[in-house]
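Chapter summary example: a protein plus nicotinamide-adenine-dinucleotide.
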Amino acid sequence: VLITGGLGFIGSHLAERLVGLGAEVTIVDNLAANCGGNRHNIGTFANRVSVRIADIVESTLLPELIADRDYLFNLAGQTGHLASMEDPFTDFEVNSRAQLAILEACRRQNPNIRIVHASTRQIYGRPEYLPVDERHPLKPIDVNGINKLAGESYHMLYSRVHGLQATALRLTNTIGPRMRVRDARQTFLGVWIRCVLEGVPFEVWEGSQLRDFTYVTDAVDAFVRAATCDAAVGEIFNLGGDCAISLHDLAELLVKTHGGGEYLIRSFPRTSRAIDIGDYYASFDRARSILGWQPATPLDQALSETLGYYRCYLDRYL
Ligand SMILES: NC(=O)c1ccc[n+]([C@@H]2O[C@H](COP(=O)([O-])OP(=O)(O)OC[C@H]3O[C@@H](n4cnc5c(N)ncnc54)[C@H](O)[C@@H]3O)[C@@H](O)[C@H]2O)c1
């Protein structure tokens, strides 16, 4: 198995699961500045994976990395929405151009490889209806959404036209141990968690927006199911959470779960409002019916596990 972005938040959990299943796992990751890659993420199983520190934008590396693998879990990416507006070309390089290079390498070196791509709900833009299903129009409202949509579209095109066996999962906010807490480049919730643990107030922007959250081990479960399901080839699936919750209620739940904490309601900073998607929660009916997947972890448990992790390891993520 090859995992791009395997030192990151979701990729490292996936690597751990696959190693546990007996897979021979190679991670390729460049520990990109401002992404969630962290050697601590694989600390407990580092001796059971091989790690290649390399940039997937360097397409000369790809043939060697991809040859002889049975599975490619393609998670390397730049996740920051504001970051994609401030530095659009870095986002483009990894989320779009490198994705095409990876697929070209697969087509030429290893056309039978099974591929699962980490796509995102961001490609829908502002929802026109809820819950958002896979037929919802795709109207991204930031550079990251456009580049991720291109990355996903390349996977589907190469599946349809070149016969590659690719599946895309459109992830919603994914949370859990190892998520980025240094800043909001992965999700605002990382900052909230850090603040409650450090005993400082966190900011809730407006608060009425609805969101859904997938616990990371449930997301990993979807990746494994997608890779091993013949009916998933050439298909796209939303992931989702066990409930839709407003940010205000989420703030309350976090404070309750931690047993303390304070937050301030603020209006949106102008730059963030311009790319905010409003209310979002996904329908994951397709994933349920074809992959047999559904979120198994309630949100309060997900928060509790995440808080527990960072009570021990916050210093490794600052
Ligand atoms: N976390 C979420 O809520 C979420 C939601 C939707 C989609 N996704 C997608 O899931 C994937 C994984 O996200 P994550 O949350 O684990 O993020 P992450 O930042 O923790 O992991 C991404 C990893 O990719 C690596 N990377 C970035 N550029 C690279 C490059 N050029 N070459 C090699 N490695 C590179 C980073 O070093 C990092 O370890 C991403 O593609 C992201 O778009 C995540």
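Key point: The two ends are 30 Å apart (CA to CA).
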